[in-house]
Write a structure and sequence with these properties.
With 246 residues, the protein is an alpha/beta fold. Strands 1, 2, 3, 4, 5, 6, 7, 8 and 9 form a 9-stranded mixed sheet that branches. The protein is globular, with a radius of gyration of 17 Å. 37% of the residues are buried. The mean pLDDT is 85.
Length: 246
């Protein structure tokens, strides 16, 4: 039997985007998946949209932040392969089949990632990024953006082994998670477009650039970086001053 994907989407008042997210999962060339949506108590049209899709598993209740919502979703998950897709992002067409084949052919692959495309303005304004091959040391000491969350997939047992997301981290919980995973396994890179991420002024990251910077320093320091490592320091300051520069 083919491997089952569990896709978790945390959301709050993203009724303007979430249909694209749902459709991008639903329209894959792959049938063995579940899409779990954890809504934080939306007051816009999000719940109306969720009710239109009978295949979804979803709950709507207050949470303590995205990491808490994502952990809730993965506790509900029954799949073999885990990923989370934010409610303003969406997948490239027909990526589940090749991804599942990599995991099926090589049991040593615990963690897989590909390339991300940013939507930087209107729906046709794209900036393609080929994800670089990461090393744990570079990720910790130099550049927290070495891996891009929307284009990553990992086995359930790896997520459980690292105890999921740290819910005390409010912005860079993906950075912390990937460092924990990189301590255990070498991720597998595929040179393929996987997902699209919207960039706009009211994203969680853009609204919290200073907090993001402090969390990056905290996580990198926890994993052995020097206080205000000059290379990482320059990288973070650049993110604050020029968040949409690639």
């Amino acid at each position: 039997m083919s491997l089952k994907f569990s896709i978790v989407t945390p959301t709050l008042n993203h009724g303007g985007f979430i249909r694209d997210t749902i459709e991008s999962v639903l329209n894959q060339d792959y049938d063995n998946f579940e899409h779990i949506i954890i809504d934080g108590g939306s007051t816009d049209n999000t719940l109306d949209i969720l009710n239109e899709y009978k295949h979804l598993k979803w709950i709507s209740e207050k949470d303590t932040g995205p990491a808490n919502a994502i952990n809730k979703g993965f506790r509900m998950a029954t799949g073999d392969l885990f990923a989370w897709l934010n409610s303003d992002d969406y997948y490239e067409k027909n990526v589940f089949s090749p991804i599942s084949q990599y995991f099926e052919k090589d049991l040593n692959i615990k963690f897989l990632y590909g390339n991300l495309t940013f939507i930087v303005g209107g729906p046709e304004e794209f900036s393609f990024e080929k994800t670089r091959r990461p090393s744990k040391d570079y990720f910790v000491h130099q550049n927290a953006d070495y891996l891009r969350q929307p284009c990553t997939f990992f086995r359930k047992e790896l997520f459980m082994k690292v105890n999921g997301l740290d819910e005390d981290i409010k912005i860079v919980f993906d950075y912390d998670l990937f460092i924990k995973m990189l301590k255990i396994t070498e991720p597998h890179y595929i040179d393929q477009k996987i997902a699209y991420q919207r960039l706009y002024d009211t994203t969680l990251t853009k609204r919290n650039l200073t907090k993001q910077a402090f969390e990056i320093f905290k996580v990198s320091r926890k994993n052995g970086a020097r206080i205000f490592d000059p290379i990482m320091y320059r990288s973070v300051i650049k993110k604050i001053l020029f968040p949409y520069k690639f």
